[in-house]
Structure formats: structure tokens, C-alpha cells
Amino acid sequence: MTTAELLADDPIWLILIKVVGIFAFLVVMTLFMINWERKVVARMQQRPGPNRVGPNGWLQSLADGLKLAFKEDIRPVLADKWVFFLAPVISCIPAFVAFSVIPIGGEVSIFGERTALQLVDLPVGVLVVLACSSVGVYGIVLSGWASGSPYPLLGALRSAAQVISYEIAMGLSIVGVVMFSHSMSTSDIVKAQGNLWFVVLLFPSFAIYVISMVGETNRAPFDLPEAESELVGGFHTEYSSLKFALFFLAEYVNMVTVSALASTLFLGGYQTPFGLGSLWSGFDNGWFGLVWFVAKTLFFLFVFIWLRGTLPRMRYDQFMRLGWKVLVPISLVWIVAVALVRALNNSGEFSQQQFLIILGVVLGVLVLLSLLLPDRKVEEDPNAVPITGGGFPVPPLDLEVPKAPTRRTPVVANLPKEPVAVTASKEASDGDV
């Protein structure tokens, strides 16, 4: 029995349990991630992190959430009332919906009912995750437009361009996985990695996906839509109270979703790692699969934190150049290579696994060389627009600063050098005083 057939027999009470469980899991992961991120970055920077609220400070994020709930809800005068209210909701809902197609475990028994640890198994499950991540950006765009302020609008436009650019690279990185698994169903992709994980066979696709998922979620060093240095906080500058909390929740839930999808596509999902299933058959049970899945997801979430504590924010033109001129061309070349290898393997001339591993290593070396080698010097165009030290063009300086006028010395009347005593005349002294 396939996973889709097994899920089709779920009673309504079991579906409701799964919905509540997924919602609770994502909310708890958000609270955990906020505190974990602050603690890990604090350890990297050799300073104390949250250590006051709760045991060792682990209730700090819960206290912050309660504080946001009781803060005053402020709406700017120029804001569009209904769009300003709906924007954070539009950002938050797709983040939760995308997780519904992720298989977090194998077949288990819940209150005597056989089912799989997955809410729904769709034939196009991978496309559902990509579609939800694309819809979520509408909330960001609408929040920037509805705020009635230029800085949130600039952050919203940046986010729209960023998501479009890296959504293409992310979609292309999944093509190789679909070609090998012959399905876009997430459960079928996990089962196709029973012998060898796709991170080994399709390492270039894995690297492109990891870079794209960081850019897709607006996380450092790609957090340009909310760059404080020039946007005062980005698209949610004018938001407060629970509306700001919804944006915060959507960001961290999206991080969990793309990390879970990376585990599903490239690390075998809920399958036992490192061949531990051969040591004890109990490791392959359904509930143990949930443990492996959460561990793999936490690994990718740690990568998010590691990048934030290590790399500085990129400049926007460098960020867009990486997406359009590096990731997209490499993805297209890799897809052609994978198709060629599969065609040669069907003819019986090559072993596709060995050939793909060698090809991935060669392609990775070429990418590193292209990033590390210095840029070729280009002859300067005398008619080119001058560039400032920050890399942004400035208008030509046609006007010259006029010279300061010469200072004129003040003209002083010829006064006597010594004071002259003035005496009143006899006529004045005899007059009326």
C-alpha cells in the first residue's frame, strides 16, 4: 500500500490530530530557534546569551512573544487599513501550509489506527512547497505598499526581486532530484533514497539548493529586504504588536520548512543515517524516523545560525549577480549533465553513480575557482559613469565649485586717535535743563 492510499483512509479525528500536531511543532520550533540562535551567536562572539528567564534562559523567547501580544498596536495615518492588516496574515499562512506535504516519519500506529506521519501526500508535493514560498512574498510586498512609508516599500521591492531570482535557482536544483526519483511526491523521493542519498549523487544540486534557501528566506548574509543600515528595518518598519510577531513567526516557520524539504530531498528524510539500521532493526521504526527527521532539520537550522554569526551582509548588486550569473547557469549545465548521464546509463555504457560523483566534484572545483580567482581587468571607458568607493554610480560632475570671494576690509572713518573732551557752551548751560 502506497503512502497516498494509507493517508486516504485516515478518519477525520486523526487528520485533526495531525493538523494540531504540525501547528504545535512549528510554533515550538520557532520559540526554540529564536532562543537557540541567540545562544549560539552569543557563544560564537564570546558573550553571555539569554540566561535570566526560565531554566538557563530557555523561556526568553516565550516571554518576548507575550510581551509583543500586550504591546500597543499602532497603524500609521497614511496606511491602507485592510491591506495593512491582511499582509502579515498572508505571509504567515503559506508558511504553515507548505509543511503539510513533508513526510516527517514512516508508517506508525496512532490509537490503533495505521497511518503515516504526514498530513497529505500529493503527486506534486514539491511544487506545493515552491508555490507556498512564492505566495508568501505577496504579504511582504503588500505590507511595504500599505505602510504608506518609502522605507518599507523599498524593502518590499527588494524582497520581491530577491525571491523571484532565487526561486528560479531553487526550482532548477530540484529538477535533478525529480529525474532520479521519477516523481514529485515527497514520500516517493524519500523512498528513492533507500540505497544512496541524493546529497552524494547530486551534490551540485544540494549546494545550489542550500544557497537558494538562505536567499529565499531573507536570512543573513542575504537579508537585504530588512537591512537596518539603509531601510530602518525593512518592510515591517511600521508594524508592532501581534502583526510584527506574525512576520517574525512566518520567517522562522519558513526556515523550518525549507530545512525540512532539504532533508527530504537530499538527506533521505526520516530514513536512518550512517547505516544504523543494520545495527538494530528498531532504528527503522516509524517513531524513530521522526527523531532522525528532526535531527537532520536541526542541522540545516544550525547552518542558518552559523552563516548569520560568520558572514557579513552582501551588497545588493553582488547578491543579484550571484543568483543570475552563477547559480542559474550552473543549474542549467548540471541538468543537461544529469540527463546525459542517465541516457548513457540506459545504454549500459557507464555507471551513473560513479560518473555523477566525479562530475559533481569537477563542477564544484570549477565553481570554487571561478569565485576565488581575481576578476579580469577591463579597460576603462573614458565615457563611463564614475563609480564611488561603495560601488554605486554617481551623476557626472558638470559644475565646478565657485571660488570663495575675496574678503573686503571694512572702511573705517578717520577718527581722532585721542578722545576729545566736549564742553557745553555758555548758551547751552544757561538754557533750560
Automatic annotation (TrEMBL):
Catalytic reaction list: a quinone + NADH + 5 H(+)(in) = a quinol + NAD(+) + 4 H(+)(out)
Gene Ontology molecular function terms on file: NADH dehydrogenase activity; oxidoreductase activity, acting on NAD(P)H, quinone or similar compound as acceptor; quinone binding
Keyword Membrane among UniProt keywords: yes
Segments passing through the bilayer: 12-34, 82-102, 122-142, 163-184, 196-215, 244-267, 287-307, 319-343, 355-373
Recorded topology in the membrane: Multi-pass membrane protein
Protein localization: Cell membrane; Membrane
EC annotation from Swiss-Prot or TrEMBL: 7.1.1.-
Main subcellular localisation: membrane
Pfam families assigned: NADHdh (PF00146)
Listed GO biological process terms: aerobic respiration
Alphabetical UniProt keywords: Cell membrane, Membrane, NAD, Quinone, Translocase, Transmembrane, Transmembrane helix, Ubiquinone
An example Gene Ontology CC term for this record: plasma membrane
Class in the EC hierarchy, top level: translocase
InterPro entries, per the entry: NADH_UbQ_OxRdtase_su1/FPO, NADH_UbQ_OxRdtase_su1_CS
Assembly with partners or alone: NDH-1 is composed of 14 different subunits. Subunits NuoA, H, J, K, L, M, N constitute the membrane sector of the complex.
Function (record text): NDH-1 shuttles electrons from NADH, via FMN and iron-sulfur (Fe-S) centers, to quinones in the respiratory chain. The immediate electron acceptor for the enzyme in this species is believed to be ubiquinone. Couples the redox reaction to proton translocation (for every two electrons transferred, four hydrogen ions are translocated across the cytoplasmic membrane), and thus conserves the redox energy in a proton gradient. This subunit may bind ubiquinone.
Family: Belongs to the complex I subunit 1 family.
Name this protein carries in UniProt: NADH-quinone oxidoreductase subunit H
Organism the protein comes from: Umezawaea tangerina
Gene name for this UniProt entry: nuoH
